[in-house]
Amino acid sequence: MTHTLHRQGDVESLREDYVVLILGKDIPFSPYRMRFSRRFPRIYEIVKKAFLNMGILKMLRIINRIKPGRTQEGPVFNDKKELASYLKRLKERNLGKSVVVSGLFDEVNDCLKGINLSPHTVQFSLGIFGKKELLPRQEILEVTTMCGHHMISPRLAERLASDVRDGKLSREEAVRVLSKQCVCGICNKTRASKLIEALAR
Amino acid sequence: MWINLEKCIGCMECVPYCPAGAIIATGNKFMVDEDRCFECYVCIRAEICPVDAFQKAPLKWPRTLRHLFSSMTMIHKGTGIDGRGTAEMKTNDVTGRYGYGEVGFTVDVGRPGVGTTFEDVERISMAVAKVGVEFEQMNPVTKLMSDKTTGSIRDDVKMERILSCVLEFETKDTKTVSIINALRDVSKLVNTVFSVGCICRCKPDGTIPVKKILDEAGIFYRPNGKINIGLGRPLAP
């Protein structure tokens, strides 16, 4: 599960991109989640997606009711101040769950200092190795790597940008289609909108 | 995955959605190239086909691995979680999996978005095994290894194509540079790409021991990454 690690982009763009993951104590084993998702895969996906689409405050209210061992993906932040405020509230709640923040190290560390926390463990991205000529162009990678499982095809990103350019789709509609492919819900819609706009130009 | 040609109207709407680029023309209709298909089911989940022409083909071993490693909605029996690896550093505050003096690596083979075969995965796992690593026992790729000391993968799965998988291993931090050099060397021999992650337990004052090693060796790392902020309880000793 390294799906939030290798997001591409320059520092300015990544300044608006932070993902928070909350993990239960007994991950990786979660019999309740496994059993339910296997038996009712479609319902599981719908419930999960609905949960991810909820607002931050509502989510915080619900966090205490999460069954032990469940993973909570998201939310995604565009703003460092909002991230800091969210982390502060998480700390105050003292949930006992592991919390992982993906984003610019300098910016996240600033947030942590402000709430008297320091990193426990970090993971660096050492970049891409191998046959890089097989990759799409950098601008497309910046869009597709926002879904770490790569459910967003580079051809779809190109097509949506082209449709926006031709006036066949609005930017909002293009982002809706794009982010729908990312089942985890970690695609940053605000950043995606800016990237699609730049691609469409 | 296959497309029911009696239903397909050749509208091409589905073509850009496929991460494998496996939807190809046949006359004025479209079909799925079985060799290329990752069985990720993105085409079905996208709900883009106006006539519901996509149909799931029954999968038999070892083709089942394509779906298991490519669709992120699948749960691996070994790990109990959906996704392609384990919780790695995400729960290190409670598991203590990576301790002081140790370094963890994640090698996402086929990522971003290129795909791979287990033959290439094996090239990488055998290259790092020679340096001396311990593969994560709970990882789904480790479970496909015929020899966990050499990193060799069982023959019957080697040619299966997947969107990506994660090799996870740990070693002493003194071997960090050797591991990265081994990865650089093997990167010239594979027919895919791979994304490398490096995990390190921070000291109580927040300093990151592996950062010094990477800096001194002039090894590139991105300005963004993942931080476990240590809120899990009970904390690992």
What is the element layout, followed by pairings?
The complex is a heterodimer of chains A (201) and B (237).
Chain A lengths: L10 H4 L3 E6 L7 H9 L1 H12 L3 H8 L7 E2 L3 E2 L2 H14 L4 E7 H10 L6 E10 L7 H7 L9 H12 L5 H11 L7 H12 L1
Antiparallel strand pairs in A: 1-2, 1-3, 1-4
Helix pairs in contact in A: 2-3, 5-6, 7-10, 8-9, 8-10, 9-10
Chain B lengths: L1 E2 L19 E4 L2 E4 L9 H4 L8 E2 L8 H7 L21 H4 L6 E8 L6 E2 H14 L2 E2 L9 E3 L4 E2 L7 E2 L2 E8 L3 H12 L5 E9 L7 H8 L7 E5 L9
Antiparallel strand pairs in B: 1-4, 2-3, 5-11, 5-12, 6-10, 7-11, 8-9
Helix pairs in contact in B: 4-5
Give your account of this protein's structure.
The complex is a heterodimer of chains A (201) and B (237). By secondary structure, chain A is of the alpha+beta class. Chain A has 2 domains: 11-114, no CATH class; 132-200, no CATH class. Chain A is 49% helix and 13% strand. Chain A has 10 helices and 5 strands; from the N terminus they run αβαααββαβαβαααα. In chain A, strands 1, 2, 3 and 4 form a 4-stranded antiparallel beta sheet that branches. In chain A, helix 7 (138-144) packs antiparallel against helix 10. Chain B is an alpha+beta fold. In chain B, strand 8 and strand 9 (152-153) form a beta hairpin. In chain B, helix 4 runs antiparallel to helix 5. Classes of the chains: A alpha+beta (201), B alpha+beta (237). Chains A and B meet through helix 2, helix 5, strand 4, helix 6 and strand 5 of A and helix 3, strand 5, helix 5, strand 12 and helix 6 of B. Strand 5 of chain A pairs antiparallel with strand 13 of chain B, so a sheet runs across the interface.
